[in-house]
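Just scan this pair:

***
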Amino acid sequence: MKLLPITPAKSLNKAYLKQSLKRDQIELFKDNLVRLFERIRSDEHEEHLKNIVSDFLKDTWYKPTFEINTSKRTDLVIHTGKSSDDPVGVIIETKNPSNRSEMISFDRPNAKALHELLHYYMQERDLRDNKEIKQLITECIQKILANPDSPNVTHLEAEIDRLDYEFYGLTEDEIALVEGRN
């Protein structure tokens, strides 16, 4: 069975469409995403990538409201509160950009990253009786970047803008207004 990609608007809960998003939040996201890509080195170990992703998440959304850290053998988790004593709400499985064989893809969803992610989920759910988990994420930067050693920031910013416009269903006139082309 081949998986097909879905648009951001279709992948998100409809409740998120009711939340307002300000331009400064989009700019913060873009700036932090660019910084994330600038810090990635494909010759580094997976541990290096975890720290970079953790910093990105904290600086963009979660600090100081939620604890982000490793948990037992799990790569990264986002707790439901400010402490690592709070339940895990999100589990993130990271892989180095050069480790393509272990990462899931649309053509190969049955990969080690998925197995590890499901294993960590089952440990949280069954062994720790955690019913707070809302998201499971497999993360590998090479899916976003064509070349992790020299990211094309202009292309990346344009892609983020395109996803924003698609998510909010903006018309060409509205896009022109947002971009100051009016």
